[in-house]
Fold this protein.
Amino acid sequence: MKKPLALIVDDEPDIRELLEITLNRMAIETCGAEDVGRAKALLQQKTFDLCLTDMKLPDGNGLELVDFIQALPAPIPVAVITAHGNMESAILAMKKGAFDFVSKPVDLAALKLLINNALKLSDATPQKDRRSRYALLGDSPAMQDIRAKIDKLARSQAPVYISGESGSGKELVARLIHQRSSRHDHAFVAINCGAIPHELMESEFFGHKKGSFTGAVCDKKGFFQSAEGGTLFLDEVADLPLPLQVKLLRAIQEKKIRPVGGQQEIAVDVRLLSATHRNLGDMVQDGSFRQDLYYRINVIELHVPALRERPEDIPALVEHILLKLTGANKQDLPAVTPAALAALQRYHFPGNVRELENILERALALYEGIRIERNDLNLPGLSDDDAKSAGAEPESASLEDHLDKIERLAIRVALEANYGDKTAAAQALGLSLRALCYRLQKLGMES
């Protein structure tokens, strides 16, 4: 079996020798280069499986080499070696497509983990055919773009920030990135940061030692250790309190954690993905989210579009959801009339795909016969009463009253779709929280 071949780029002979010895002991052959020019020449002469490059080189820097490798017909995983604490360079390298980074002085155990993960990518031939129970449905341009980005992001270790409205499928995107990555055979740990009591957060994230506090009757692993070798997904990361944000930042940068009550740090190998429906940029501006943590988790941003932005995907989603809800095959599925499909494609969907699933589940319980009609959907704004209040007969009331009814209906739909969460409802409506509260008060809807 042919041994993997690695390119090591560093102008310090001692560092090159140390890296070559380490890789040779891992049954990896190596070629060394002292500068960017020599590295480029070797990349055009030989077929490598991975590249390790120092950031500072006599005739350029590692970023130039990352760009060169990404432009090759068959890019290989490339990791950069940065000075200790120089996270800006590491983040920029990963934005450009670097697989990962390692800080000086080089931790050989961390380096071996990085190399093993990189080689899994090089060996990942038909991994795109890997079967998964997770699927991102739809052939709209937006969905095609996201699928292409997922395949690209799966080949990196860079932290990814997934933005989008509630119910749009952010966790599904995170699971697909993990499923297609070299970490697919390890754990995917998904955490809702807003569901953990603040006083328990440190213990939940980093674990604790026996006797470290009242009730700590045994050692416990935290989320980072549970996700060892795999992926940690922090949903609603905006809900993290500031004290934990500081400790999370250190864990990400140092790739080490300290359990509550522990005396020593523990190295962890985890890919971090995060998401929220809130605007983290605005939270950085008002001081409720740390700027340094924001830039660390937002190395690459992936936006998931709202369902109303891709109505052409609704028929495929409807079929998929009905199959899941009924457990039937396609032949036995209840038909959805063209009028019902058209109504779904016109609907605003404040709750996105999650709301579509709720609507179809309700329709399955209410419909009679063999077809789901438009009225079976019971869409807000499509009932007879709502049609009148939304604009069928405005002559009987003043224009102001008529507009108030439309506004009341839209707010009610948004609140129901977001389970009463005013912040999420405001975002779905394109309003600030203050503006929504003002409208609730004005329309007598505060209760």
